[in-house]
Amino acid sequence: MTRRLAPAVFSLLAAGSLALAGCGQAIAAEKHVRAPVAQVKSKESGLKTAVFAGGCFWGVEAVFSHVKGVKSAVSGYHGGTKRQADYKLVSSGVTDHVEAVKITYDPSQIRYDQLLRIFFSVVADPTLRNRQGPDRGAHYNAELVPLSADQRKVARAYLAQMKRSGVWDRPIVTGISAAKTFYPAEAYHQNFALKNPRHSYIMRWDAPKVAALKEFYPGVYRASFLRD
Hints:
Elements: H1 7-21, E1 48-54, H2 57-64, E2 70-78, H3 87-92, E3 98-105, H4 112-123, E4 131-132, E5 135-136, E6 142-145, H5 149-165, E7 175-176, E8 182-184, H6 192-195, H7 200-216
Parallel strand pairs: 6-7
Antiparallel strand pairs: 1-3, 1-6, 2-3, 2-8, 4-5
Helix pairs in contact: 2-4, 2-7, 4-7
């Protein structure tokens, strides 16, 4: 006879297995930088969505969930098929997916170009390909996925500006990916940093990103964690 695990027990087991099989363990410190103010500003209005891939989606979601004007932040998979949108498959590196976060935001409070600046300041190192922090594999590649013509224009201009800025001492390799279907990740990944603040990965890698957001951009920092 099969016994069903209580949700709390399942959550603990899932978190434990993730520590072993998914987002990696601490190996070195990440460097946060003050990315340049965008020269090309977004001109969007009304609620908009965009997708950001920047390594393990727990940290990407955590940072954007603390940004004023962000209305939703959903962890998920982008680039592959519906059948491939499974954490074990994606973590194995055999799919076409990257771990990503789809955010909905209000441009009257936070513009896309400002989100890009935050992303490259405290979330993703744009000089790394197929890895971020302690995580290795193509599914951890940093990618921008604009969902509108305005976002594509701003993203292209900002990446070009970053390459000229001299802020980074290695070549910028983060690129722009064509938008494909975004598949939300399993429920236990959503709001992961909020639900698991003492998880070793969150404490070592993602809490410092949120702290850097607060330090670098206090005007857009929201103390409370946005819940989806």
